[in-house]
Specification:
With 449 residues, the protein is α/β, with parallel strands linked by helices. It is 37% helix and 12% strand. The protein has a 13-stranded parallel beta sheet with strand order 1-2-3-4-5-6-7-8-9-10-11-12-13. Helix 5 crosses helix 6 and helix 6 runs parallel beside helix 7. The chain is globular, with a radius of gyration of 26 Å. The protein starts with a helix and ends in a 14-residue tail after the last strand.
Length: 449
């Protein structure tokens, strides 16, 4: 179908959807080929009742809300929805106040599954129908759970019924060790690609119980364990670190690891040395790294595979600087995302930092927020990174010479912002973004790199 014809079909579908009662009554009379266009119209115009009816009578086995709804598998002769793909739906944000959060969406889905399970159960004393019941609909979804929603999600995952949740990305906050283990054991093994456990205060002992249980997920590629209350300075931690390393080593598909705010000084070789494949994403913010950690990383197989590296909050201004400068060339052939926010870098470090940084020709994101750069330093940084052809987003600090908060500093920041734009425009890089806003601009997710 040409773009013009496709636009005309969508226009007609939106006109039909505007007459909501007529559209809903007409669904059984419409050819299956019009359902995708009507779905697209209902999504664009937020016609919830029509969306509900479309899902109920969907004539294809798969319904994906984040892919092109016009591209669907071959139809079957009756309503036959088997898979509802709700992954990648945008989480609620300030820019989209009408949307719901991932947490709220998880609770709503869990309640819907429990309700569907209750409706499917036949009351006692009723005769069974001769026709066999339809198989359950698989709902592919990203889940977010905390201590207030853990019980209902666990019941939904274990309840069976007409709707079955199959999680792709699992996020949990503020759960006990027992609650975390219960939910992980209730998840369907196939299809889970990410587990993120944060603010759960599991400690090293808790992680040593949780990580081995992740082996049952054959598609697991990302494990994120920030704020897990791990500190290698505590007595008796060496045995626990070896046990954690052995557990990580059994995750044969692991490609992303986040251990943010875990105090790991001198332990990277032990933790990463037993992995079966090189990591493509490694996030170690505020981990109190030592020079030996960066030296190991530069010499390891991980360096040549890393697409994303986060070293924020580690002091790169003194003893970590030489190994960091050796690490940059080691990761230069693959690195796309580098975050070194709050690393105590200043103008004086730019002459030694820029040459190895320019070797990272695939770099598309550079995070420098919270470092002590001046207006002059920012301009030198921009000029020094212009040879990087893929660099599109730089999150830089507020310059140290414009931080007084008075009217003059505000005007200085505005003038600097305009000058940076002029420099980018003069270099033919109008589409590049240089910003000091962390809220509006963040790095890409690993799976999007």
């Amino acid at each position: 179908m040409t773009a013009t014809a496709s636009s005309l079909v969508l226009l007609c579908a939106r006109r039909l959807a505007a007459h909501l009662p007529s559209a809903r009554r007409a669904l059984p009379l419409l050819p299956a080929e019009l359902y995708p266009a009507l779905l697209q119209a209902a999504l664009l115009d937020r016609r919830v009742p029509l969306l509900r009816d479309l899902v109920r009578s969907w004539p294809f086995p798969v319904l994906s809300l984040h892919r092109d709804p016009r591209r669907q598998p071959d139809k079957l002769p009756r309503p036959c929805l088997r898979v509802l793909d709700m992954t990648d739906l945008q989480d609620g944000t300030e820019n989209n106040p009408d949307s719901i959060s991932l947490w709220s969406g998880t609770v709503l889905l869990a309640k819907a599954c429990l309700e569907a399970s209750q409706h499917r159960a036949e009351p006692r004393g009723t005769k069974r129908r001769k026709s066999s019941p339809l198989p359950p609909v698989e709902i592919r979804v990203d889940l977010f759970v905390n201590s207030t929603s853990g019980a209902i999600l666990r019941a939904a995952l274990r309840g069976g019924g007409a709707l079955r949740l199959r999680c792709r990305d699992f996020h949990a906050e503020e759960l006990s060790l027992g609650g975390t283990v219960d939910l992980l054991e209730a998840l369907e093994p196939v299809g889970l690609r990410r587990v993120e456990l944060r603010f759960n205060n599991l400690g090293l002992a808790g992680l040593c119980q949780v990580v081995p249980r992740l082996v049952r997920f054959p598609d697991l590629a990302s494990v994120r364990l920030p704020y897990s209350n791990v500190d290698v300075r505590r007595p008796g931690m060496e045995d626990g670190m070896r046990e954690l390393a052995a557990g990580l080593g059994r995750l044969r598909g692991l490609r992303e690891l986040n251990l943010g705010s875990c105090r790991l000084a001198g332990q990277l070789r032990m933790l990463l040395g037993s992995l079966h494949r090189p990591l493509e994403s490694l996030e170690l913010p505020f981990c109190h790294l030592q020079p030996c950690d960066l030296t190991f990383l530069a010499q390891s197989p991980h360096a040549r595979a890393l697409k994303k590296l986060d070293l924020s909050g580690n002091d790169l201004s003194s003893s970590l600087l030489p190994p960091f400068l050796h690490l940059l060339p080691a990761v230069s052939s693959s690195l796309r995302h580098l975050d070194v926010a709050e690393c105590h870098l200043g103008d004086s470090h730019l002459p030694v930092l820029l040459p190895p940084l320019r070797r990272c020709i695939l770099l598309s994101y550079l995070g420098l927020f919270g470092n002590a750069l001046s207006s002059r330093g920012l301009k030198l940084l921009l000029e020094g990174t212009l040879p990087l052809p893929s660099l599109r987003l730089v999150v830089h600090p507020h310059p140290i010479d414009c931080r007084d908060g008075d009217g003059d500093s505000d005007s200085d920041i505005t003038a600097l912002r305009d000058e940076l734009r002029r420099m980018l425009r003069g270099a033919g890089r109008d589409e590049d973004t240089w910003t000091s806003s962390l809220q509006r601009h963040g790095g890409l997710d690993f799976f999007a790199l």
